[in-house]
Write a structure and sequence with these properties.
155 residues, mainly alpha, 48% helix
């Protein structure tokens, strides 16, 4: 929570008294989806060259999302049911691949990854919700035909 407060303070005021690594600063900037999409939309046609997907949709129905991806890029469909299996954590995994914890070796694992397990602290969630609220409103405006999963059904 204290780190989030310090990151937000630095982001809002330019306060450089606390130095953060690039990865730590990215924790806030990578969630500014509208900002990133606005930049892409300057150069590429949003209707023809973008397929906007949400992780929440993929988690609910990965096979349907993958069908949409393959349709969008105009390649033949793949029967993912035949090459995946549902794991104990209810997530699907490609058969023959190790899970993410085995892919990221401990010596290469970012320090913040351990802090991402378990439920988020309520105060931290409230801070992040407040910080990202203006960005999320811009995202709703930028994607009027999409339902943003974390915006409680707002279009």
């Amino acid at each position: 929570t204290e780190m989030i407060k310090a990151l937000m303070r630095q982001s809002e005021t330019g306060d450089q008294r606390v130095l953060f690594t690039k990865e730590e600063r990215r924790m806030l900037t990578m969630g500014q989806y509208a900002k990133h999409l606005q930049n892409w939309f300057k150069y590429f046609d949003r209707n023809e060259q973008f397929l906007i997907l949400f992780m929440e949709d993929f988690q609910k129905n990965p096979f349907e999302v993958m069908k949409r991806v393959l349709d969008f890029i105009e390649v033949p469909q793949i029967n993912y049911h035949s090459i995946t299996e549902k794991k104990q954590d209810q997530l699907w995994e490609l058969t023959g691949f190790n899970n993410i914890s085995n892919i990221i070796k401990n010596d290469k694992k970012p320090a913040w990854l351990d802090a991402c397990s378990g439920p988020m602290d309520t105060e931290a969630k409230d801070l992040l919700d407040d910080y990202f609220a203006p960005w999320n409103e811009k995202l709703v405006d930028l994607l009027p035909d999409q339902t943003i999963p974390w915006m409680n059904g707002k279009k």
